[in-house]
TrEMBL record:
Gene name linked to the record: upp
Domain Phosphoribosyltransferase, residue spans: 7-209
Activation and inhibition: Allosterically activated by GTP.
Organism from which the protein derives: Virgibacillus tibetensis
Pfam families: UPRTase
Record protein name field: Uracil phosphoribosyltransferase
Gene Ontology molecular-function annotations: uracil phosphoribosyltransferase activity
Function: Catalyzes the conversion of uracil and 5-phospho-alpha-D-ribose 1-diphosphate (PRPP) to UMP and diphosphate.
Length: 210
Protein backbone atom coordinates (compact mmCIF):
# COMPACT_ATOMS: atom_id res chain seq x y z
CA UNK A 1 0.00 0.00 0.00
CA UNK A 2 1.31 3.45 -0.91
CA UNK A 3 2.07 5.56 2.13
CA UNK A 4 -0.58 8.26 2.49
CA UNK A 5 0.75 10.08 5.57
CA UNK A 6 3.93 12.13 5.26
CA UNK A 7 5.58 13.63 8.36
CA UNK A 8 7.76 16.57 7.34
CA UNK A 9 10.53 16.48 9.92
CA UNK A 10 12.93 19.08 8.50
CA UNK A 11 14.88 20.61 11.43
CA UNK A 12 13.67 24.16 10.68
CA UNK A 13 10.05 23.02 10.61
CA UNK A 14 10.44 21.18 13.92
CA UNK A 15 12.26 24.12 15.54
CA UNK A 16 9.57 26.62 14.57
CA UNK A 17 6.79 24.21 15.55
CA UNK A 18 8.25 24.01 19.05
CA UNK A 19 8.08 27.79 19.38
CA UNK A 20 4.43 28.01 18.33
CA UNK A 21 3.53 25.27 20.81
CA UNK A 22 4.78 27.50 23.66
CA UNK A 23 1.84 29.16 25.42
CA UNK A 24 3.92 32.33 25.83
CA UNK A 25 4.22 32.87 22.06
CA UNK A 26 1.97 35.82 21.21
CA UNK A 27 -0.30 36.32 18.17
CA UNK A 28 2.22 38.31 16.11
CA UNK A 29 5.00 35.74 16.46
CA UNK A 30 2.51 32.88 16.11
CA UNK A 31 1.26 34.27 12.78
CA UNK A 32 4.79 34.83 11.51
CA UNK A 33 5.88 31.31 12.43
CA UNK A 34 2.80 29.64 10.92
CA UNK A 35 3.58 31.60 7.76
CA UNK A 36 7.22 30.46 7.80
CA UNK A 37 6.39 26.82 8.54
CA UNK A 38 3.84 26.83 5.72
CA UNK A 39 6.51 28.02 3.28
CA UNK A 40 8.89 25.26 4.39
CA UNK A 41 6.16 22.63 4.18
CA UNK A 42 5.17 23.81 0.71
CA UNK A 43 8.75 23.22 -0.38
CA UNK A 44 8.53 19.61 0.80
CA UNK A 45 4.99 19.13 -0.51
CA UNK A 46 5.98 20.14 -4.05
CA UNK A 47 9.06 17.91 -4.22
CA UNK A 48 7.45 15.64 -6.84
CA UNK A 49 5.95 18.26 -9.16
CA UNK A 50 6.40 17.28 -12.78
CA UNK A 51 9.14 18.95 -14.83
CA UNK A 52 9.58 19.41 -18.54
CA UNK A 53 12.67 20.18 -20.60
CA UNK A 54 12.74 23.55 -22.35
CA UNK A 55 15.36 25.30 -24.44
CA UNK A 56 16.65 28.62 -23.13
CA UNK A 57 19.54 30.89 -23.93
CA UNK A 58 21.90 31.98 -21.17
CA UNK A 59 24.24 34.95 -21.65
CA UNK A 60 26.75 32.34 -22.81
CA UNK A 61 24.85 29.79 -24.96
CA UNK A 62 21.65 27.87 -25.58
CA UNK A 63 20.87 24.93 -23.34
CA UNK A 64 18.17 22.48 -22.34
CA UNK A 65 16.87 23.17 -18.84
CA UNK A 66 14.09 21.95 -16.57
CA UNK A 67 10.93 23.91 -15.86
CA UNK A 68 7.65 23.10 -14.13
CA UNK A 69 5.38 21.36 -16.58
CA UNK A 70 2.58 23.83 -16.03
CA UNK A 71 0.44 21.68 -13.76
CA UNK A 72 -2.05 23.97 -12.08
CA UNK A 73 -2.10 24.27 -8.28
CA UNK A 74 -4.93 25.44 -6.02
CA UNK A 75 -4.74 26.28 -2.31
CA UNK A 76 -7.96 25.85 -0.32
CA UNK A 77 -7.82 27.01 3.32
CA UNK A 78 -10.53 25.91 5.72
CA UNK A 79 -11.64 29.14 7.35
CA UNK A 80 -10.68 30.68 9.58
CA UNK A 81 -7.46 29.15 10.84
CA UNK A 82 -6.41 27.87 7.42
CA UNK A 83 -6.07 31.48 6.27
CA UNK A 84 -2.90 31.76 8.34
CA UNK A 85 -1.13 29.27 6.06
CA UNK A 86 -2.01 30.77 2.68
CA UNK A 87 0.65 33.48 2.33
CA UNK A 88 3.43 31.12 3.27
CA UNK A 89 2.41 28.63 0.59
CA UNK A 90 1.74 31.17 -2.16
CA UNK A 91 5.16 32.69 -1.47
CA UNK A 92 6.57 29.39 -2.70
CA UNK A 93 3.90 28.86 -5.40
CA UNK A 94 2.90 32.39 -6.50
CA UNK A 95 0.88 31.21 -9.51
CA UNK A 96 -1.45 29.10 -7.35
CA UNK A 97 -5.07 30.17 -7.18
CA UNK A 98 -6.75 30.32 -3.78
CA UNK A 99 -10.23 29.09 -2.94
CA UNK A 100 -11.99 29.22 0.42
CA UNK A 101 -14.21 26.84 2.37
CA UNK A 102 -16.12 27.94 5.47
CA UNK A 103 -17.44 25.29 7.87
CA UNK A 104 -18.96 25.29 11.33
CA UNK A 105 -19.83 22.41 13.63
CA UNK A 106 -23.51 21.83 14.39
CA UNK A 107 -23.76 21.90 18.21
CA UNK A 108 -26.23 19.00 18.30
CA UNK A 109 -25.04 16.63 15.59
CA UNK A 110 -21.38 17.76 15.73
CA UNK A 111 -21.31 17.47 11.93
CA UNK A 112 -19.44 20.04 9.85
CA UNK A 113 -21.88 22.36 8.08
CA UNK A 114 -20.78 24.23 4.96
CA UNK A 115 -21.59 27.95 5.00
CA UNK A 116 -19.24 29.38 2.37
CA UNK A 117 -17.45 27.99 -0.67
CA UNK A 118 -15.60 30.06 -3.28
CA UNK A 119 -13.30 28.17 -5.63
CA UNK A 120 -11.40 28.62 -8.90
CA UNK A 121 -13.65 27.71 -11.82
CA UNK A 122 -11.21 25.11 -13.12
CA UNK A 123 -10.69 22.96 -10.00
CA UNK A 124 -11.21 19.78 -12.04
CA UNK A 125 -7.81 20.34 -13.65
CA UNK A 126 -5.93 21.54 -10.57
CA UNK A 127 -3.92 19.80 -7.91
CA UNK A 128 -5.67 21.10 -4.80
CA UNK A 129 -4.06 21.48 -1.40
CA UNK A 130 -6.55 21.79 1.46
CA UNK A 131 -4.91 23.54 4.41
CA UNK A 132 -5.75 23.81 8.10
CA UNK A 133 -3.23 24.12 10.96
CA UNK A 134 -4.77 21.23 12.93
CA UNK A 135 -6.20 17.83 12.02
CA UNK A 136 -8.11 16.83 15.14
CA UNK A 137 -11.32 14.79 14.74
CA UNK A 138 -11.05 15.04 10.97
CA UNK A 139 -14.69 16.05 10.56
CA UNK A 140 -14.07 19.47 9.03
CA UNK A 141 -11.20 18.25 6.86
CA UNK A 142 -13.22 15.36 5.49
CA UNK A 143 -16.20 17.64 4.82
CA UNK A 144 -13.98 20.16 3.02
CA UNK A 145 -12.52 17.44 0.83
CA UNK A 146 -16.02 16.16 0.04
CA UNK A 147 -17.12 19.70 -0.88
CA UNK A 148 -14.30 19.82 -3.43
CA UNK A 149 -15.17 16.41 -4.83
CA UNK A 150 -18.82 17.43 -5.14
CA UNK A 151 -17.67 20.26 -7.40
CA UNK A 152 -15.52 18.06 -9.60
CA UNK A 153 -12.09 18.00 -7.95
CA UNK A 154 -10.14 14.78 -8.47
CA UNK A 155 -6.61 15.55 -7.21
CA UNK A 156 -6.56 16.59 -3.56
CA UNK A 157 -3.92 16.70 -0.80
CA UNK A 158 -4.31 17.80 2.83
CA UNK A 159 -1.69 19.88 4.64
CA UNK A 160 -1.64 20.64 8.37
CA UNK A 161 0.91 21.58 11.01
CA UNK A 162 -0.13 18.97 13.55
CA UNK A 163 -2.40 15.94 13.39
CA UNK A 164 -3.60 13.03 15.51
CA UNK A 165 -4.29 9.48 14.39
CA UNK A 166 -8.04 9.92 14.93
CA UNK A 167 -8.14 12.66 12.32
CA UNK A 168 -5.91 10.79 9.91
CA UNK A 169 -8.16 7.73 10.18
CA UNK A 170 -11.28 9.84 9.66
CA UNK A 171 -9.95 11.32 6.42
CA UNK A 172 -8.78 7.98 5.09
CA UNK A 173 -12.07 6.31 5.97
CA UNK A 174 -13.91 8.77 3.74
CA UNK A 175 -11.13 9.63 1.28
CA UNK A 176 -8.54 6.82 1.22
CA UNK A 177 -6.72 8.28 -1.81
CA UNK A 178 -5.87 11.62 -0.17
CA UNK A 179 -2.27 12.17 0.91
CA UNK A 180 -1.85 13.90 4.28
CA UNK A 181 1.20 16.07 5.00
CA UNK A 182 1.92 17.15 8.57
CA UNK A 183 4.83 18.27 10.73
CA UNK A 184 3.78 16.14 13.71
CA UNK A 185 1.44 13.33 14.72
CA UNK A 186 0.53 14.24 18.29
CA UNK A 187 -0.60 12.06 21.18
CA UNK A 188 -4.38 12.30 20.77
CA UNK A 189 -7.47 14.30 21.75
CA UNK A 190 -8.79 15.41 25.13
CA UNK A 191 -12.46 15.31 26.15
CA UNK A 192 -13.06 18.60 24.31
CA UNK A 193 -11.45 17.30 21.11
CA UNK A 194 -8.38 19.52 21.49
CA UNK A 195 -5.10 18.02 20.30
CA UNK A 196 -2.73 16.86 23.07
CA UNK A 197 -0.16 18.39 23.49
CA UNK A 198 -1.05 20.53 20.46
CA UNK A 199 -0.84 24.30 20.56
CA UNK A 200 -4.33 25.32 21.64
CA UNK A 201 -6.90 26.81 19.27
CA UNK A 202 -5.04 27.85 16.13
CA UNK A 203 -7.65 30.43 15.09
CA UNK A 204 -7.63 32.15 18.46
CA UNK A 205 -3.84 32.21 18.59
CA UNK A 206 -3.55 33.51 15.05
CA UNK A 207 -6.06 36.30 15.48
CA UNK A 208 -5.79 37.11 19.19
CA UNK A 209 -9.31 35.98 20.10
CA UNK A 210 -10.69 33.67 22.75
Amino acid sequence: MVKKVHVLDHPLIQHKLTIIRDKNTGPKEFRELVDEISTLMAYELTRNLALQVVTIETPIKKMNAKKLSGKKIGIVPIMRAGLGMVNGITRMIPVAKVGHIGLYRDPETLKAIEYYVKLPTDIQGRELIVVDPMLATGGSASAAIQALKDRGAVNIKFLCLIAVQEGIDAIHKDHPEVDIFTASIDQGLNDKSYIIPGFGDAGDRLFGTK
